[in-house]
Amino acid sequence: MKNSSSTKGLVVPEARKIAFVSPRYSPGGTVGGAETLLRSLAEYAAANGWEVDFLTTCAEDHFSWENAREPGVERSGELTIHYFPVNEDRDIGVFRQIQESISNEGVFFDEDEELWMRNNVNSSKLNDYLECEGASYDRLVMGPYLFGLIFYASLICPEKTLLVPCLHDEPFAYLQIMRRMFEAVGGFMFNSEPEAQLARSIFDIEEKSQSVVGMGLDSFNADPGAFASRHGIDVPYVMYAGRREAMKGTPLLCDYMNVFRQRTGRDVKLVFTGKGVIDAPSELEPHIIDVGFVNEKEKREAMAGATAFIHPSVNESFGIVLMESWLVRTPALVHANSAVLRWQCEQSNAGLWFRTYPEFEEELLLLLDNRRVSETLGAAGREYVQTRYSMESVGARLLSALDGESQ
User: Fold this and answer.
1) pTM reported for the whole predicted model
2) Quick one: which of 144, 176, 179, 136 has its CA closest to 160?
3) What DSSP string runs through 78-115?
4) Is the pLDDT confidence value at 407 over 90?
5) What are the tens digits of pLDDT across the range 303-357?
6) Residue 192: predicted pLDDT
7) In the beta sheet, which residues pair with residue 13?
8) Is the domain of 182 the same as that of 268?
9) Are residues 329 and 180 in the same domain?
């Protein structure tokens, strides 16, 4: 690292102490993609000589946000984890009412945005800590952008804050209150170039420090026959991993798979890992294999044996599970309206994208029937992740970003 760094929007001496701020942290369990990303970056920084604190809440469940553990400080590997309670006085009814208006692009006002943020997931105790100790850190890295926790924390020491927004093209991104945060912080670490382009199109951040970093993944292999053998699957299957909800596109996936089976007569199963209710037609339910939360080994084996990893979400800034599926040479089908996932497929030559059901059917049939195409796409995906998102490549981009160098 350099003795000093100076860029527009971010002027600080050589950084040695850093705090990461994220809504959840789990040393052994499963949290969201954005939180997994923040933890990965924190661990890499700590392994490369930084003194790293991770500031988070006592919550574990992303639906209830109940305080599931005691506040306090503990060590996790090379990180010092600070747990703070989520505010329990939030009016969830008000929050959901305004959030629904925003999501549906209904009528709401600036004061509603403030009220929505105040009743979002917040931690006054975490903010109090940053008010007292923020000056002791050379960098504050925090995200994702949608949480009140991140909004209020980012405004405490904005000049030394690097936001990892995990930004999507959604109604929340266009709120005036979001403009206040994006234009206050000192810089950004984006996950992909489309995400960075979206941010620049919405906010006045051209003079800010900006880097496209992403998340590093270690290479791994998995037995492509193990999952099917374990679960008694003797026909092809496709797979989805993650939260099951409309924002992730899982109802659409179920509808498309149901129509695919009926139109083509092909017996293809649909495997789910993750958490949440699966909204599926009754005719498809016997052909869904829901294994819930699984360990990494089983998830990877499920990916390795799938004909395709299907990522129907349009709200992604990176796509960790997409990268994992490519590491086991499984081609992808993604929604064309996801600028990021489509861009990843274009960059890697490892996936296809669909906008309508007829495209979905044509592409899935291609992967089922043309082994050469499927293997070529899968091999390209593994090479892409190993090159672009190796720990070394991402780590180099991270350290440059922390030194204030735009990329």
Assistant:
1) 0.85
2) 136
3) TEEEEEEPPPS---HHHHHHHHHHHHTT----HHHHHH
4) no
5) 999 999 999 999 888 999 999 999 999 999 999 999 999 999 999 999 999 999 9
6) 93
7) 4
8) no
9) no
102 assigned to some structural domain: no
Q: Is the pLDDT of residue 14 over 60?
A: no
239 neighbors 211 (Cβ within 8 angstroms): no
The answer as to whether 175 is a domain residue is: yes
Structural domain for 59, as ranges: 4-86+121-216+390-402
In-domain check, residue 155: yes
Q: Within 10 Å of residue 240's Cβ, how many Cβ atoms?
A: 25
Of 47, 4, 41, 34, nearest to 19 (Cα)?
41
Q: Are residues 183 and 315 in the same domain?
A: no
Position 96 in a domain: no
Q: How far is the C-alpha of 215 from the C-alpha of 340, rounded, in Å?
A: 14
Ranges of H-type helices in 139-225: 148-154, 176-182, 193-202
Task: Dihedral sign for Cα 279, 284, 285, 291, please.
Answer: negative
- The beta-strand segments (E) located in 200-343 are 209-212, 237-241, 269-273, 288-290, 308-311, 332-335
pLDDT of 12 above 90: no
